[in-house]
Amino acid sequence: MTGRPDTDRVQLLWTGGWDSSFRLMHLLLVERRPVQPIYVIDTGRPSTLFELRAMAAMRAGLLARLADPSLLAPTRVVLASDHPPAPQDAAIGEGLRRETSMGTQYVWLSGPAGALGWSGVELCIERYESGLSDWQRRIFAEPGVLNGSPESELFRFWSFPVIHLTKDEMREAARSAGFLDLLLLRWFCFRPLLGRPCGRCRPCRLTHREGVRFANPVLVAVRDLLRKAAKAVREPAAALDVLRRR
Question: Torsion over CA of 9, 10, 13 and 18, rounded to 10 degrees?
Fold first, then answer.
């Protein structure tokens, strides 16, 4: 690496998914700006290993194309469990989760962001064809601009560089710039089976399917039924155990 100050780098939350990988590649290959990727590990996610593998493959492809490989800093890895959300952020997140479709990741990401003093770190959320989602309408005055509401405080750590772009628009921009092949290495599935995306979780339903080989749908359905059956057995057993201890 060169002696380029870390503060000169774009601080980007990289997950190995479509949106953040598009942003990473556009910054490096089109804008030619130095980037510090940050990966926050949630050990409870079965997709973590697949995300890491996807990022390793994309990094190798990027380094081979960069005239100055030092533009891409080593990924800074942070363990989410080391930095639980502050009580006020957890409360905001719980409220939004009860009332909207917001994902859990925005709650636990606030823990490392607050503890490590992040500000303006890039968080990649795409623009939906239908416009802002229910939770986004609660926090944005306009796409990417927080509205100052109590709920928006949960997102005070971030900037939102691709919120004006749909996944289709990112795809065409990547194709035009010549890095679509690298972008297609991304990972997206929350519940993979036998090393392949499940095809049933929300990210699988939303993803571009070009070149993607999904797990056998029958095996996925059987796995999900077995999980539901196991949960149905565990919950009454746990309740009985509590009653016995009283």
Answer: -120
Instruction: Provide the 3-class DSSP secondary structure of residue 211.
Output: coil
pTM, two decimals, is: 0.81
Q: Residue 149, SS3?
A: coil
Query: In angstroms, rounded to a whole number, what is the distance separating the alpha carbons of residues 31 and 43?
Result: 33
Closest CA to 10 of 158, 121, 116: 121
Cα distance between residue 131 and residue 80, in whole Å: 30
Q: Is the dihedral of CA 59, 109, 187, 160 positive or negative?
A: negative
- pLDDT per residue as tens, the chain (246 positions): 333 446 689 999 999 999 999 999 999 999 999 999 999 998 777 788 889 999 999 999 999 999 999 999 999 999 999 999 999 999 999 999 999 999 999 999 999 999 999 999 999 999 988 889 999 999 999 999 999 999 999 999 999 999 999 999 999 999 999 999 999 999 767 677 777 777 777 677 767 666 678 777 877 777 777 777 776 766 666 655 655 666
Separation of alpha carbons 34 and 67, rounded Å:
12
CA 35 to centroid of chain Cα atoms: 17
Question: Counting beta carbons within 10 angstroms of the beta carbon of residue 136, is it exposed (0 to 12), middle (13 to 18) or buried (19 or more)?
Answer: buried
Residue 228 C-alpha from the chain's centroid: 26
